[in-house]
Amino acid sequence: MFTLDGQVAIVTGGAKGIGKGIAEVLGAAGANVVIADIDEAAGRETAEVLGAEFEALDVTSKARCQAVVDAVVARHGRLDILCSNTGIFPQAALDTMSESDWEGMMAVNLRGAFFMVQASLATMRKQRYGRIVLTSSITGPVTGFPGWAHYGASKAGQLGFMRSAALEVARDGITINAVMPGNILTEGLQAQGDDYLRQMAESVPTRTLGEPSDIGHAACFLASPEARFITGQTLIVDGGQILPESFDALG
Predict the structure, then answer these.
(1) 31 lies in which domain range?
(2) pTM of the model
(3) What stretches of the chain adopt beta strand conformation (E)?
(4) Cα–Cα distance between 74 and 80 in angstroms, integer?
(5) Average pLDDT of the chain, as a whole number
(6) What's the CATH number where 45 sits?
(7) Which domain of life is it from (predicted)?
(8) Rounded-to-10 torsion of CA 134, 250, 92, 192
(9) Spacing of C-alpha 2 from chain mean position
């Protein structure tokens, strides 16, 4: 079960962090993985380590999103899996948030996901098969955190997009689902500082932060042939972080 032998997968934002974890797990399951990332140096290094391919990608460019998909299909003749994972999360308080702060977040996190899904549909429809997995977040759809109102809006927006998009392709053999990570120990999270990491770990019932591979395994399940009857759904991977009513419930 859950073998991806012979399948072709694109992982956007796969150079580091959660994307790297997804790429690693998909590759271990047998998929031919293409890492697509704006960071060419890190992307090529990760691809070499994982035995994957690399494509330079700025998800804010619709033309580049289509070009990456076209290049992958030209090489492999198919595209089975899209893990649309690229995301940014710079903090900005509401009273100082600029229009460019807001637009930049939406351009990468929300519009970029739309561009990649749209670019993938023609091939997936032609082959009557496709698995699309979005990397959303618990922040926005379920929880909130000061400084990330624009981030939360982009991640909640991804889920609204996913549900309607899933209906449009439901008869084409294509599923669209999302993973919703909690606090995962990535380079980006580490950049928030030790105090933030301690605070976040204390809010999780397991008292630990997740690893990128935890999201990778969830994405791998949703990308598998066995997940054919699951679409328009979300899978929270957070160590139980959203469960407690208060810190008293953590014991």
Answers:
(1) 8-184+215-236
(2) 0.96
(3) 8-12, 32-37, 53-56, 81-84, 130-135, 174-181, 234-237
(4) 13
(5) 96
(6) 3.40.50.720
(7) Bacteria
(8) -90
(9) 19
